[in-house]
Amino acid sequence: VFALCGTGLSLFAVKALYLNRHDTPFHPWNFDGVQMRGVDAPLQVRFGDDLVLMGYDLTSSTLASDQPVTLTLYWRVAQPPATNYSIGVHLVDAWGRLYGQADHQHPNAYPTSLLQTDEFIRDRYAFTPFAGTPPGNHYTLLVTAYEEGTGQHTEVWDSGGQWRGTAYPLTEAAVARPEDFPAPDSLPIVQRLDADLETGLRLLGTGDLPTSAEVGRDVLITLFWQAQTPSSRDSVIRLELVDGAGAVAARTEAPPGRADLPTSQWLAGEIIRDGHSFFIPAARFDDSARALESGVYTLRVGLFDAQREVSGTTATLGTIAITAPERTFDDAGRAPLATIGTIAALIEAELPTQTVQPGTALTLNLTWRAEAPVSVNYTVYVHLLGESGALIAQHDAQPAEGDRPTAGWFTGEVIRDIFALTVPPETPSGRYSLKLGLYDPDTYARLPVRDRDGQELGDGITWEIEVGNRE
Fold first, then answer.
1. Which of 189, 229, 346, 412 has the most other CB atoms within 10 Å of its CB?
2. What distance separates the 2 farthest-apart alpha carbons in the chain?
């Protein structure tokens, strides 16, 4: 009896500590089972099929690495989930680079699989940016949810039902300078360099550097700088990939930290965490007619001034093994069925059948030709539409299920692709449209399509499909 009582008290304590039930004498919260009233920002954002973010409280939208702010998220479930979700809160800049992170294994340490529909979780974070985050505006706080065990992120739909990918932007935030700059030894520097690349500006070191990368992808390079003395010079960083012969195969240039915080405004002793998304292009920097080939390249960094004059020495950061795809050009001169924007031509689109049964897969065999270099990895969409234009089924993915991103296409090469779309079992018989196109995954903007005669087709190419019920 005592053991049973002890167990019951333990479960009650867990509930009381981690979880709140609506409108009880013990927890008089403004929760009606759907909405949380009285919060700073009410929401109804759905993560996956089960989890709903009802809103949040934030003590300040100005952050500093030595002054935590309190962020409180309010969660409910639309139905009791079978999955336990973990929650991540990320601070990113305008380029999506990470400058702060706080993850909870479960919201407020309570497994979501135990949550009932008449309960909610108050999930509280003491949040700070990473040490050395450049001060400025236009940072964004994002929330993600991912499955325990697999780490797979859920898809997100905002309060208006708009799909938002796998992260929801809570709010814009600003980052202020800390009262005291961090000590270099307290930083997460993996490779210490202490290289004075120009007078008054020291490269303390780097974070984890990638050892390998694929053509058409970005790699993250994190540098840590310290202003030794105030400077009147606004410096620019040049990152380069150099081949075994000493030729520059890829290059990127950017101000250190932020463009709106030039080095002439850095204070003596200030430390800046400097993240760079280094794009690995399909074509070489020193010869755009040559594709970047697989091999081991040296990564180096240097500084120059606004007139592109070298203002100091360079430092070698390490080596990166680059992998380039095998390329074919066998259909390079073939007339296309359609052109998509200025970047791609659709050489062939084969439908093995134009009649499909509900519950079965419809396969589309595609042959693309790269028409011009791009730095965006566009998403291919294949949508099955009803007569009214209603979406019946869809398959959205990068070409070759992500293995051949468009930013890795070399002008003139041919890429073969297969898309399989499953028709829902409950689909009524009748005539439907199958629509194909490309869109930017960051803006959802679709590229314009023209047929082989140059006539505009809108934002996609369409085929008629017959769906027939099983006998």
1. 346
2. 84
